[in-house]
Structure formats: C-alpha cells, structure tokens
Predict the structure.
Amino acid sequence: MSHVTISPDKARKLIRENKLTRNTSGISSGHVQANLVVVKKELAFDFFLFAQRNPKACPILEVTEVGSYIPTLVAPSADIRTDISKYQVFKNGELTDEPENLINYWEDDMVAFLLGCSYSFENALVENGIPMRHIAKGFGAPAYITNIPCEKAGIFSGPVIVTMRPVLAKDVTKVVSITSQFPLAHGAPISVGSPESIGIKDLNKPDVGQLIELKANEVPVFWACGITPQYVAMNVKPELMITHYPGHMFITDLKDRDIKTII
Amino acid sequence: MSHVTISPDKARKLIRENKLTRNTSGISSGHVQANLVVVKKELAFDFFLFAQRNPKACPILEVTEVGSYIPTLVAPSADIRTDISKYQVFKNGELTDEPENLINYWEDDMVAFLLGCSYSFENALVENGIPMRHIAKGFGAPAYITNIPCEKAGIFSGPVIVTMRPVLAKDVTKVVSITSQFPLAHGAPISVGSPESIGIKDLNKPDVGQLIELKANEVPVFWACGITPQYVAMNVKPELMITHYPGHMFITDLKDRDIKTII
C-alpha cells in the first residue's frame, strides 16, 4: 500500500515500528502534520506563551497535559514518544542526540507542543494549480534566518525563521488568499518580494536546506517556519528541549480541511 | 468629554482614579475590551491550556509574563491591578470579595489572562444595521448555562456559558458572517435557533442578566461567553481565581479592526 494513502494511525504504527523512517512529506496525504517541541514543566508556561505570541511561526495545534505523551485532541491513539521517526535533543543549546524515539528521554513532568506545518497549505496550493518545485524534487522549502525578532516570552527569544517559495508574479494574490485560510499551518506569508527587507542578504544561500532558484517572472514569497523553535533553543540554551527532526513530522488524525478557516 | 470617544489610556486613568465606575459598554468605542482571569503560577499552565482548548469561550488576547500586571502587547501603559473598576475574587469556588482594585491581592507569582469580549462583534453588527436591543436598554446580553462541556484541561472543566441575541431570521446568515470575522471576540455563534439542543430549558429564564424577549420572526442566536471562567471557578474550586466583575471589562489599546480576520 502506498504511504500516500495509508491512514495516519497506520502511518504512525509503521513509524513506531521503525518500518517507515523517511521524511513524512506526502505520507497520509490530506492529513495535518505537526512540528514537535517538548520541554519540562518549569519551562512549559513560558514556551506556551512564546508560541501564543508567535502564532505565525508556532501555530498551536495541541498542547498536552503535564506528563502526557498522548495528544488526546488531534491523535488520541498516538504516542508522542515513538510516533515520529527521528527526534532532536538540545541540551543547553547544543544538539546532543538524534534518537529514533523518546522512551529513554521522557519524564513525567514533560509537556509536548504540536505546532502546525506548511504541508497543509502546500497541499492546498498544489491542488489549486500552484507548483511547488521543492516537493517535486523531494526536499523541503529552503529556509532563511531573518532580522525579524520573535515576540519574547520568558526566556524564549530569537529571530523568525522563514521558508521561501518562488511564486509567479501573477499568482501572488492567489497564493496569499489560499494560505491565509490556514492560520494553523503558518497562514499567510509574512513578506513578499523583498529578501533584503527581512534581513536576507543572499537568496542563493539558504541557511537550511537546498536552494530553489527563482525563474523568470517569479517572486520570492516568505512564510514563518516551524523550525523557529530549534533556533530559539540554540539561542537561549534551555537546559533541555526536544523537537522532531526537520521534515520528520508528527502525523495527526486531522484533515487539512479541519484546520481551514471558514468565513 | 464623552466617555464614548475618550482614548483607552484616558478611560483607564479615570477608572484607576475611581472616577469612572460604571460598566464599560460603549466606553472608548471601537476599541477592544477584555475579560480578565488571574491565577497563580501553579495553575497558570492549566488555565492557559483550558483557554487554548476553548477558544470560543476564552479567546486569548494576551497572557502576561509570570508576576507581571502589565499587558505589554495590548495596553503597555496599563496596570491590570487598577484599571478595571470592579473585580471578583473567588476562593475555593466561593465569591469572597468584589474589590475596586487588586493592590492588596496581587502577588509576584500571578499571571493575568485577557480574553476577548463580545463588544467587538456587537459594534460590527450595529454598524451593519443589526439592532442589539440589550445595548439600547443599557444592559448585557442574557446568559445561559448550556449542556455543552468545555474541553477539560488540568483541573479546569465546566459547561460553556452562552449569551443569546435575538436576530431576525432574514439576518441570521449576515450575523454569522460578520461575527465569524472576530474569532478573538468569541467569533461565530455556537448554536442557532434551538435552545433545547444546547440544554436551555426555558429561554425566558436566563441564568445571568435580564431577559430579552423574542419578537415575531426572530431566532435566538447563541455565542460562547466570557463569563465561562467564572462558572469554571465555581465548578472546580481553585484555591484562588480573580476575574473582572461582569460588564466591567478591561479596555485595551487595540481597535476592533485590529482583531478582524482578513482573508
């Protein structure tokens, strides 16, 4: 069975059993995927506040109860500790481990944050005839560190990280309109057409990921990115923060249409 | 100078000096007003989670840093302890005091939650030709306890409280459309036309406030209400929870248009 059409529950089971270890792009297509951030209780309020104040970079899909690794609202059959294929562990701002599960890391005062991911709006863009060249090439959109500061909260601060997608000038309004309908998947672009204005010196040198070059009549469009918390972790050096490995997301039971704004 | 047109900063100053003590309906018209909930740090994460899981009843405008009574994002010149004319103090679920300020109550581990209020969408409705009879009569919309449970979070649970506004049948779609644009002011109705279906036995007997009778061709329309946390406090009996006195809201610097969804 193709991984594109399997249910989120089946996909998570394969991931849990280490039978599906690639990045999750396209898996259980049409379902919402999520970025993960785990912190201990003493930092949980501050990180919650950080996410609430920075909804473009950190749109909150679910926050677990203290100690719970079960996201009861978006995937009640899941286990946060095992259902992502690869994690990143940051201790005092240093990436110290990339484990395949969190069984040895989980403690009963941990809190998990599931934050929306751009796959939902990318699906909607592709369905509406807007090509996403990075998906066709099998990798993620290139990401850049900006000069836009996140709203601080407690110890948490740092720049907003953005992804860039080239869009034909004639399609920019359509792309803004479609992505605006997905506020829980980073929503509308935070900047359009001027890398310099957000502190990006050279569009040809992404800070993360592979370059997607602009073609004739294309404009670079920038969205807040869910790897912002990883950069925040490196910036403020909390004793412990655990995240998913970029591209290896948590697959929820929600469908993309469930998080679409209806007005 | 009319209280309708004074700036939020001036209105808060008058309130702070006990020179403006009435309910805040219509004051600094066009600015966003807010419900207040204050809890101590040990409950702050759970109440944050409760609000995040119940965005219709508890739409989050701002959460302060631990110990801070200054809402730096929505009213940086304000003081949460003094800038509401009347508060309610709940100890172990009992209403024990209705002080004019929180100077004697504030502690350095308290967190304040400012939650959106229906005044913003009511302004938009009136501007669009939908009459609000309760405003003309000088009181708040009648409120009812429903059989709809809030999503639980930590110790916090209880029924959703709703307000009811009579709407001409021909205007229901317009009212849904307009209020949908204000998700931070309770947003779209949670139920239309059937009090029984949400556990309201007698529409003529509101649980809070004065009755507004339905006229010919009017349908009762129900919105989640910001007094839900007061009922939650009475339900789960936290050691301490402080709120505004109903109708005596916190006036922010935000304009209604600032919280309007644009798509």
